[in-house]
Amino acid sequence: MTEIGRVLSQSTLYSELGKQKRPQSGAETGGRAEFIAVTDAQALLGFKMLSETEGIIPALESAHAIYSGAKMARNMKKIQDVVIYVSGRGDKDIQSVADELPRLGPQIGWDLRF
């Protein structure tokens, strides 16, 4: 986000988000929320984390939030809660994840070779 509140374009692992003609804007520019940048490798960690611990394959959009939520939770008190809204379904993203693992997997210790 720029100093005047404009949302900047970003490259993303999630192909549909990358096809947008311009960044979307809305309430996020009103200073009422905090946004955390997540790399593609970190999004894959979120994807892996939820898949392995809960058996839920998240959509890549949600994988970004899962990683951020887990990171935030590490610095919170035990009586505090984190709520992450997981939308979509990740089964449609399996091929995208598989395609990116040769590039991003070594960064996060995720190797599917047998």
Automatic annotation (TrEMBL):
**Record flagged with keyword Thylakoid:** no
InterPro entries on file? Trp_synth_beta/beta-like (IPR023026), TrpB-like_PALP_sf (IPR036052)
Cofactor dependence is on: pyridoxal 5'-phosphate
| SUPFAM superfamilies given in the database record | Tryptophan synthase beta subunit-like PLP-dependent enzymes
- Cite the Gene3D superfamilies for this sequence: 3.40.50.1100
Alphabetically sorted, this entry's keywords are:
Pyridoxal phosphate
PANTHER family attached here? TRYPTOPHAN SYNTHASE (PTHR48077:SF3), TRYPTOPHAN SYNTHASE-RELATED (PTHR48077)
Designated name of the protein: SIS domain-containing protein
Taxonomic classification = Eukaryota, Fungi, Dikarya, Ascomycota, Pezizomycotina
